[in-house]
Amino acid sequence: MSLLSSLQNFDIDLNPNPVVALKVPSTENQEDVPFHVHRKGQLILTLQGGVTCLAPHAYWMVPANCAAWMPAGVPHSNRVTANAHVLFLYIEPDVPGLPQECCTLNISVMLREMIKHFADFPQDYAKKTYYADFAQIMLHELSLMPVERLSLPISDNSKIRTLADSLMENPGDRSSLDRWANRLAMSKRTFERFIKKETGMTFGRWRQQLHLLVAIRLLVTGSSVQTTAYELGYDSVTAFITMFKKALGKTPGRFLDER
């Protein structure tokens, strides 16, 4: 059964419990879940591989042992890498302590194992049972998880979406600022102002953050550090490792070891 068919057979918004889990089957190929919205909030926990999430104002990369949090009512889409192993939690909108904005959360080993255990529980568990008590403890732990800097700011402007999609698909494109401005029918100065307005970053800083997300996606799906650096258009592996460590405080090798 595919990811899409699993979701089509699962109407979570009819379930009144504070939190409900859904196991997602792994697939051999990458799968895309188009834009959709839930009455409940959604936590997307990656146990293996990676997930890229798109919401109205940002892309999020969700490597193994991290989770994307999508508050209730936020439209979003998901792209799951080949052979990924993912769990979904659907959480009622009135549960206190959870972030009000979309984000990536670093999930502790204990919470990860709690969520995996919870995913085996019946979805229609009753109040004042072991299942309900366990759910409340798990939600409290979730509210304590730190936010990871694994997002790329965008906007609903079609040009910034086109730019982001192009660089996601071809991250090794090292075209100059002038060339990108020409592609979007802007002067260099107008393009610089446009990027700053839509993302809050300079073009160079924004593209580097995009490279970081793509790098993580490649690394968690088995690409070597050397191949990843080449795919991103870096002149040397050392330059790529320096960028990665500056952004996340650890080398790509250490990042993978921790996953």
Spell the H/E element sequence.
Answer: HEEEEEEEEEHHEEHHHHHHH
Radius of gyration: 19 Å
CATH architecture of the largest domain: Sandwich
Structural class: alpha+beta
Strand line-up across the major sheet? 1-8-3-6-9-10
Secondary structure tally, helices: 10
Overall pLDDT, averaged?
88
- The percentage helix is 40-55%
CATH level 1 name of the largest domain: Mainly Beta
How many beta-strand elements?
A: 11
Q: List segments where confidence is low: pLDDT < 50 over at least 5 consecutive residues.
A: none
Can you tell me the number of structural domains?
2
- Backbone shape: globular
For the terminal residues, how far apart are their CA atoms? Answer: 27 Å
Q: What can be said about the biggest beta sheet?
A: 6 strands, antiparallel
Q: Can you tell me about this structure?
A:
The protein is an alpha+beta fold and 259 residues long. The protein has two domains: 3-148, Jelly Rolls (Sandwich); 155-258, Arc Repressor Mutant, subunit A (Orthogonal Bundle). It has ten helices and eleven strands. It has helices at 3-8, 109-118, 130-142, 158-169, 177-183, 188-199, 203-220, 225-231, 237-248, 252-258, and strands at residues 19-24, 31-36, 41-48, 50-55, 58-63, 66-70, 76-80, 85-91, 103-106, 147-148, 151-153. It has a six-stranded antiparallel beta sheet, covered by helices on one side. Strands 2-7-4-5-11 form a five-stranded antiparallel beta sheet, with helices on one face. Strand 4 (50-55) and strand 5 (58-63) form a beta hairpin. Helix 8 (225-231) crosses helix 9. The model has no long low-confidence stretch (mean pLDDT 88). It comes from Biostraticola tofi. This is AraC family transcriptional regulator. Residues 158-258 form the HTH araC/xylS-type domain. Pfam families: AraC_binding (PF02311), HTH_18 (PF12833). GO terms for molecular function: DNA-binding transcription factor activity; sequence-specific DNA binding.
